[in-house]
Design goal:
By secondary structure, the protein is of the alpha/beta class. Helices cover about 30% and strands about 10% of the residues. It has helices spanning about 40-55, 70-80, 95-105, 120-125, 130-145, 165-170, 185-190, 195, 200-210, 260-265, 270-275, 285-290, 295-305, 330-335; strands spanning about 10-15, 60, 85-90, 110-115, 150-155, 175-180, 215-220, 235, 240-245. The strands form two sheets. Strands 1-2-3-4-5-6-7 form a seven-stranded parallel beta sheet, with helices on one face. The chain has a two-stranded antiparallel ribbon with strand order 8-9. Strand 1, helix 1 and strand 2 form a beta-alpha-beta unit. It is globular.
Length: about 350
Amino acid sequence: MRLILRKPIKSWVQVTQSCNLRCKQCYGDCGSAPRADELSLDEYGSLIEEMAGEGVIDVLVEGGEPLNRPDLVALLARFTPHVMTRLRTNATLLDPETAQALRNAGVGEIFVDVMGASSEVHDWHVGVQGSFTQSLAGVRNAVAAGFQTAMLMIMTRRNVHEVQRFVDLAAELTVRRVGILRLYPLGRARTHWRELGLPLPEQMAALDALVVPDGMHLMTSWHPKNGNCCWQNAGVDATGRVVGCPYLRDYVDYGNVREVSWMDTWNHPLYRKIRGDDVKNACPECAATQGSHGGCRSTAYAFSGRWDAPDPFCTHTNRGIDVAQLPTHLEQLRIEPRSPEPDRSRLLPR
């Protein structure tokens, strides 16, 4: 059964494009300092009120590194009375005091990115020595503060041999939810694709060999769970640009909340098309489990240049595409979003 929504129920909100790490797989190509045109605390407060008023119930907060933003706790305290608020972080800045402050602010769940099961592999990915130890300390602090905590690993050529050890490490840390994620062709990951990209058969072999400990929930998005998330998600980047799914941030611009209402962007013609049902040769098994057709629109568009193409990361619709190699046309698909001048009056509480 395919679900059709008149309004989105979930959102992704990027609260900064800055980060204290320098990850090769960074989808936002983030710098060390926040951008001057990032949304203010009051703008985020008004945005979340609009989202909740339109029916959004769940928001995932990301960066960059959200904890790189000094007012993050105050910002999230504006979110939590309205929506289930989840935080994704590298956890290197998540000390016990900050973890407790986030808990007190009402944050419901924390996702921690860990790029391997060893300092050698993790630190290579993130570009800062010692980060592995700091991230694991952050995981422990999140667990100690009482958070439902999940660990995420983006599978690459350099860490695929540590997938099992990663899952076992999560179990040792009493983390009961883990995500093995796909690599997406955007941001800095695109630049480092030759080092990071992995052929689809090797990805599937690693997943097939994985032994998940009892009581642990594994999140993946390969066949037969490859969905088109655009049908329910309407995300906003740190400058106010609405991109729907975070994995589309290199390819779409539905408008900026400094100029139009967030809900108006939901009805952008391209957005409606991407949420539609016109994908050619979609995988029926993925459609049956996900309530959507065609799989991820980001990878489908990146590798084919067509919004109606099936996702090559699904084994049933790959059709011989080597996902370890990016197509030559990719740079032509990327957009340069226009960033309007901050208008502090538009979204200030009335």
